[in-house]
């Protein structure tokens, strides 16, 4: 049963991907883009009040520039019930291949219930070996993992990121390092995978050449999980 | 490492990488096997600016409607990206296919302002195509220039194989058709193609086919075609019926924010006014309107295909559209419900009304802009602006009562016959605008007031009645700017002005001849780029380049051109006759105005170009 939100709207959730070159579109630009996509679908959108009405859209935690994702969530408020499959088709007609929509359903949970995000990280750098993979894994799973982070005030501060790393493996595959990491992602303890890379740069001599034509980093979200480590829905 | 990975890897190191990705919704992709003509449409500035250009959108759409032509977009990479591409040997590529621009059949450049020349040349170099037309071999793409700067193509004549003079919808297609035909028939050669284009397609100018000789004083002695079968005068092309010409209904949707990120509805071309400094007002004649029926249909279609929440009505002076109320009412019948707002830029002071203001987004923004252009009635008559102080006071009164406390006023300094009195008049006018605000009863002005005077420097432009006029010297302009500042004694008035140095370089390229080719080639060699950006523009660098290539900038700026002189752009027929421009110039010095085309036909000559329009007879 789909219930109307007490505030007078239906909350339709979409799961979509943002891959390939779309990793270079910032979250802010993505939000602006989605306002237009939503209008193009002709779905009965619920608009915000005020001078500058916009469709109300809520996203899962923002992606940094340079990070792809196989699983992102978008909540769209509707004024009427629409068959989810119809809405899904409408969305897919209005986006490009790099942004496919996979599921649409009326959500019972909140996007703030997302507790963990799993990443696949591929590092192509000089001197990749099984030993390096082992060293990287040990470094990131040590008792404390100190990383320099830019604070809100712009000042660098050193933080222990280890509590944010729920699980992690590093292996050597096809001449590259392959990391799988599940990181804490609720709003109070969100861990950006970029900090892991920074630690590896500093401690494990990764990306020492600083040559973008020989070294390559790809970061991709592959799953979002709730606090019980179940796939978020 | 795969090329895509390499490219992605480099994108991670530059600012705003979203500029370079392509793959936007509505971007046109084609199967290369079905395509016989690949056209790279270059805009010599950043993606954000180029994506906002209506001309590019229109021509991209027109060319791609042809099944055998694939037109792709190309923008200038920002300096950080340019540097990386140089370092890692990556050539300039097109947005859609990612293929190198140098491999295309035809390359078109949209030339919107003179200061984009250096960037255009940098792009030709990045495409690995020889900079000079005469150095290009059979395998090189044909490089085409178009847009407003093509009305004086001479300073860049060395770098372009062909210019498209006038509106491009039909000409570009004809050029592509000819190219495909000659290829298909196996008789294509660069020279043969250019010759045939110059001979058979109206609006095509191939600079290499014309000789220019000079007098000892540097003015032009003769302009001669090398062949008998090419025109001595190149007639500008226009689209006759704007209601039937294709208009892009599925514009490419940028992922990143661009300068004009909204629906752009072109309402008419041309202008009924005739401000004597304004090139657009002359070269886009005759005036041709679209019907409200067609415009409303297009607007609805664009809304459905884009999802934009703003529609901007574009023309040189929107309030001169003869059926504006009908158009607005028709649009407002659905836009309000769809939460789409209307914006009407380029409103004239004398036609601004409360009704018009209420219909537009302006209501929300709290600010409004008007362009009196000159500070005294005398000078406004000289430039034929045809607005009065009363018009302005009435307009700002409406704006103030409508809740707009910020008024921006555009002026120009350095106009012909201008005196310090006219300069002081600018400050005086602004002060009167402030006074108008304080005349309102207090409850009607709960918000503050700010008047911004924005002053640009007059640049004499080809095909205007002021094309012969001298530009004020740099020193005079500085004096005028200082005088204006000293005349402003009101804390509500803010004064901003354009850099006179930029305007001087603009004037050199606007009124220049082929001798400037050497200077631009040297500028390209020195890696000069993005002159339209304050942070890169350097007056001293240009003066140095001019000195090294034997160019006297003053010859093009502070020198008045003789009325009988052969002007560098005289081989172009833009419709408006030289006799008309001369007469307008004479009237300017007599401080006499000319009525708008809506009042009666002034005989400018543009009606000879034809076109479905309501004003010309």
Question: What can you see in these coordinates?
Answer:
- The complex is a heterodimer of chains A (233) and B (617).
- Chain A has helices at residues 27-40, 84-93, 130-140, 193-204, and strands spanning 10-18, 57-59, 67-78, 101-106, 116-124, 146-150, 156-160, 165-173, 176-184, 216-225.
- Chain A is α+β, with helices and mostly antiparallel strands.
- In chain A, the strands form two sheets. In chain A, strands 1, 2, 3, 4, 5, 8, 9 and 10 form an eight-stranded mixed sheet that branches. Chain A has a two-stranded antiparallel ribbon with strand order 6-7.
- Chain B is an alpha/beta fold and 617 residues long.
- Helices cover 34% and strands 14% of the residues of chain B.
- In chain B, the strands form six sheets. In chain B, strands 2-1-3-4-5-6 form a six-stranded mixed sheet, with helices on one face. In chain B, strands 15-16-17-18 form a four-stranded parallel sheet. Chain B has a three-stranded parallel sheet with strand order 10-13-14, with helices on one face.
- In chain B, a hairpin with a 5-residue loop joins strand 7 and strand 8.
- Chain B is globular and about 75 Å long.
- The termini of chain B are far apart.
- The chains are: A alpha+beta (233), B alpha/beta (617).
């Amino acid at each position: 049963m789909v219930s109307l939100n007490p505030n007078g709207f239906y909350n339709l959730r979409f799961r979509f991907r943002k891959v390939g070159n779309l990793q270079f579109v910032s979250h802010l630009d993505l939000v602006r883009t989605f306002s237009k996509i939503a209008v193009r679908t002709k779905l009965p959108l619920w608009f915000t009040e005020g001078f500058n009405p916009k469709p109300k859209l809520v996203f899962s935690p923002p992606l940094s520039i340079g990070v792809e994702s196989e699983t992102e969530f978008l909540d769209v408020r509707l004024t009427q019930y629409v068959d989810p499959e119809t809405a899904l088709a409408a969305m897919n007609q209005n986006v490009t291949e790099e942004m496919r929509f996979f599921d649409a359903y009326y959500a019972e949970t909140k996007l703030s219930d997302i507790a963990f995000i799993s990443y696949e990280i591929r590092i192509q750098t000089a001197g990749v070996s099984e030993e390096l993979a082992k060293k990287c894994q040990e470094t990131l799973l040590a008792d404390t993992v100190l990383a320099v982070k830019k604070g809100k005030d712009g000042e660098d501060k050193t933080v222990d990121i280890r509590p944010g790393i729920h699980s992690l493996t590093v292996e050597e595959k096809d001449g590259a390092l392959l990391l799988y990491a599940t990181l804490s992602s609720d709003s109070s303890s969100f861990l950006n995978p970029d900090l892991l890379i920074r630690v590896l740069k500093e401690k494990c001599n990764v990306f020492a050449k600083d040559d973008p034509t020989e070294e390559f980093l790809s970061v991709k979200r592959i799953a979002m999980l709730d606090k019980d480590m179940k796939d978020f829905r | 490492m795969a090329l895509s990975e390499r490219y992605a890897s480099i994108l991670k190191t530059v600012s705003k990488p979203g500029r370079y990705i392509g793959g936007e919704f509505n971007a046109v992709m084609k199967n290369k096997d079905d395509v016989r003509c690949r056209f790279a449409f270059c805009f010599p500035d950043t993606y954000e600016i180029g994506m906002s250009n209506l001309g590019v959108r229109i021509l991209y759409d027109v060319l791609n409607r042809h099944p055998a032509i694939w037109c792709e977009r190309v923008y200038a990479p920002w300096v950080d990206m340019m540097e990386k591409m140089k370092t890692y040997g990556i050539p300039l590529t097109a947005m859609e296919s990612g293929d190198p621009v140098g491999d295309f059949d035809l390359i078109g450049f949209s030339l919107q302002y003179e200061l984009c020349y250096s960037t255009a040349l940098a792009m030709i170099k990045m495409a690995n195509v020889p900079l000079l037309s005469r150095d290009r071999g059979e395998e090189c793409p044909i490089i085409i220039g178009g847009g407003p700067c093509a009305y004086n193509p001479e300073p860049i004549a060395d770098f372009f194989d062909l210019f498209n003079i006038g509106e491009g919808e039909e000409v570009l297609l004809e050029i592509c058709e000819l190219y495909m035909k000659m290829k298909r028939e196996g008789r294509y050669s660069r020279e043969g193609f250019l010759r045939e284009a110059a001979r058979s397609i109206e609006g095509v100018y191939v600079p290499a086919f014309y000789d220019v000789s000079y007098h000892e004083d540097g003015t032009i002695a003769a302009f001669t075609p090398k062949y008998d079968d090419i025109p001595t005068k190149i007639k500008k092309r226009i689209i006759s019926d704007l209601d039937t010409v294709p208009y892009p209904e599925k514009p490419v949707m940028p992922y990143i924010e661009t300068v004009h990120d909204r629906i752009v509805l072109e309402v008419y071309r041309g202008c009924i006014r005739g401000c004597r400094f304004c090139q657009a007002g002359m070269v886009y004649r005759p005036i041709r309107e679209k019907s409200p029926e067609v415009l409303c249909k297009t607007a609805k279609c664009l809304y459905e295909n884009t999802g934009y929440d703003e529609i901007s009505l574009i023309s040189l002076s929107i309030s001169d559209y003869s059926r504006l109320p009908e158009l607005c009412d028709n649009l407002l019948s659905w836009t309000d419900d769809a939460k789409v707002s209307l914006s009407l830029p380029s409103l004239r002071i004398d036609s601004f009304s409360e009704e018009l203001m209420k219909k537009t987004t302006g209501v929300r923004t709290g600010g409004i802009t008007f362009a009196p252009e000159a500070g005294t009635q005398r000078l406004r008559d000289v430039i034929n602006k045809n607005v009065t102080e009363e018009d302005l006071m009435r307009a700002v009164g409406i704006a103030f009562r409508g809740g707009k406390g910020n008024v921006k006023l555009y002026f120009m300094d350095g106009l012909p016959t201008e005196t310090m009195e006219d300069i002081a008049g600018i400050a005086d006018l602004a002060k009167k605008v402030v006074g108008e605000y304080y005349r309102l009863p207090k409850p009607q002005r709960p918000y503050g007031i700010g008047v911004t005077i924005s002053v640009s420097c007059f640049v004499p432009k080809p095909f205007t009645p002021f094309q012969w006029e001298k530009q004020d010297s740099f020193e005079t302009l500085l004096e005028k700017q200082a005088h204006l500042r000293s005349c402003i004694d009101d804390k509500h008035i803010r004064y901003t002005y354009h850099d006179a140095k930029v305007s001087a370089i603009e004037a050199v390229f606007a009124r220049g001849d082929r001798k400037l080719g050497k200077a631009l080639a040297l500028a390209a060699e020195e890696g000069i780029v993005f002159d339209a950006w304050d942070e890169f523009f350097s007056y001293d660098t240009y003066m140095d380049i001019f000195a090294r290539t034997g160019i006297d900038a003053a010859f093009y700026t502070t020198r008045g051109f003789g009325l009988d002189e052969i002007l560098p752009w005289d081989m172009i027929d833009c419709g408006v006759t030289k006799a008309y421009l001369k007469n307008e110039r004479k009237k300017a010095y007599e401080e006499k105005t000319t009525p708008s085309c809506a009042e009666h036909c002034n005989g400018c000559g543009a009606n000879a170009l034809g076109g479905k329009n309501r004003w010309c007879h």
